[in-house]
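Changelog note: in this version the structure field was regenerated for every chain. One regenerated record is shown below for reference.
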Amino acid sequence: MGWRVSTLSDKSTTSDLFDGPTPRHSLLSGRYKQSFAYLTLRTRLPGIMQQIIMRLVSDVPDLVNKYGEDVRKDVKQIVDAIERLKMQLNRDRQFLLFHGAEPDKVEWNAFISEMPRPKKSFFRACWLHAECYLYRRIFSFFENSRHLHNYDCFDHLKKEDLMLSEVAMGALARATRGLPKSFDVFSKLLRINLWGNHFELQIGAFDFAEEDSKDDINVLVKVADIDRILLVNDTTLIWNCLVKASKTGGNCIVDFICDNGGFEFFTDMLLLEYMVDNNLATQVRLHVKAIPWYISDVTRADIDWTIAFLTGHQDECLSAVGKKWANLMKFEKIVIAPTSHFWTGPQPYFVMVESDIELYRLLTTSKLAIFKGDLNYRKLLGDYIWDSAEEFITCLRGFRPTNMCALRTVKCEVVCGLPEGMADSLLKNDQNWMISGNYGVIQYTDSLKCSCALPGQESGEKDKRMPGMVVPQSQRSTLVANHQ
């Protein structure tokens, strides 16, 4: 899912960018012209902002019908603000503080204020900070308007993605009814969920033979070829974690930190439905974005729309699936977790214990937290280029609220936990393997495996979460911003 983007941009006034890739053991940054971060900041994000303007302008007639002629003032002010932001990005300007009605204004302003001045502009900052700031700033234009404070400039893309995936949804819905509790089935659903939109494209284009049943999950798995490019597969450890937890009795809560809406969320729910139906989880908590985010990230409104769309679908199986999911939510087998703006902040997850202790405590009450997608993976690893063979647990830098799993297709240079030498071998055969989205990992770590960097570490003690650094307690929240 994504925008058709322009490749044209105003010439930057920056003079200290480097004509090379991002060095190992540093943060991803647009400073390096051969990095995917630079490409995104230079071409993709300006294109996305232009598409937002075009969408908003095209919606003016409907908005006037809904809010009256006065809404045109909002539209003009927002378009002007986005144009200014685009100029600020192109010219590598400094990040500005928030001064409106943003509920997370204090946290954002503290973060921006504590960033070192040379690293608080779009191309000089950590890529994660620059992208998060841009998406947060865009929505601030809407939420500070008179009429459009709930306007989602991306919702049509998420809806279209689901509506255009009906063939794959129908096949998956029929193939996943009444599946038995087994490792084999769980493994298939986990991998289908990982590949998401890859799966949709392959199912939609596949010419099924007469003897092939679209209602057979094994046929669908064969079509998707879901083992071909899986670099790390810890599915056995995840299964053992859930089975062990379910045997102990009592609550077995699973936290699912969502990624995209549309068809990908449909596959998320198929996996989670299976876990609840087979007592691998007594309850699943969905963590969604508080605001429109990164084009396709799922919000509470997206979930409500998805279930309503399925429930009213003319395909009886899809309608039955929608009604079942509505009941699972009604009886709180699957719930939406309390809204947290931490998920739309710029911080890596290892600072959650200092930045949002309530969210951290909530995660500690679950038996497993599943982090879905590339952005969640970048935040788990801090947008830092580790050695590709570094252990997953090391790269989390002490973020261990519970047992954890990452389901991620590789879309940028941040990756860890690969077998020694695998990255070099991949590079020889595919120069773009780290940004293609064609490779995936299913990684797991047990919460009891180590006790590094526990909360309450003495001030000034060497922090094991970023090698070689001494981090005073007061500076933990800006650790990534300061490290280069």
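Spot check on this record: Strands lie at 230-233, 253-257, 283-287, 334-336, 368-372, 404-409, 440-445, 462-463, 469-470. Confidence is low (pLDDT under 50) at residues 2-14, 450-484.
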